[in-house]
Design a protein that fits this description.
- The protein is mostly helical.
- The protein contains five helices and two strands; from the N terminus they run ααααββα.
- It has one domain.
- Strands 1-2 form a two-stranded antiparallel sheet.
- Strand 1 and strand 2 form a beta hairpin.
Length: about 140
């Protein structure tokens, strides 16, 4: 519920300053960089697997575009985390993650649970690519 304050009430609690206050901004993803790199690697492994399985000249350009999109998409996000706008936060290390875990909207996760949650989709996509490779090899 909103509440209306008078100017006098605001002046009692407000702190006036000549220098602007920078809010604390957390720009990292809160997980070890290795999980981020593993995610990118698994997606690129799927694209490489598709290139090797189908080995078709007509698919070369689309697969290169997809691979570059993945690399640039994750690269921009990785670069964005390095901006130092009043934030000295660094991503957690593996040791910190294994000791502390991580808090998510669904509750606290251990290091293994967090890694499983992050890598589940890329691993399933790669397994799907392997299933496609087996089907292509058998036909």
């Amino acid at each position: 519920m909103s509440q209306r304050y008078s100017v006098e009430q605001l002046r009692q609690v407000a702190q006036v300053s000549d220098t602007p206050v920078r809010p604390r901004v957390e720009r990292n993803f809160g997980l070890p960089t290795g999980l981020y790199i593993a995610t990118v690697g698994l997606y690129l492994a799927f694209i490489g697997l598709m290139a090797a399985v189908f080995h078709n000249r007509e698919l070369a350009l689309p697969l290169v575009v997809i691979a570059l999109s993945i690399a640039f998409g994750f690269g921009v996000a990785g670069y964005w985390t390095r901006f130092k706008l009043g934030s000295g936060d660094k991503p957690m290390t593996w040791a910190q993650l294994s000791v502390r875990g991580i808090e998510t909207l669904s509750g606290r996760l251990t290091a293994g649970e967090a890694a499983t949650q992050v890598l589940l989709l890329p691993v399933l996509i790669l397994v799907w690519g392997l299933a496609i490779a087996v089907i292509v090899a058998l036909t």
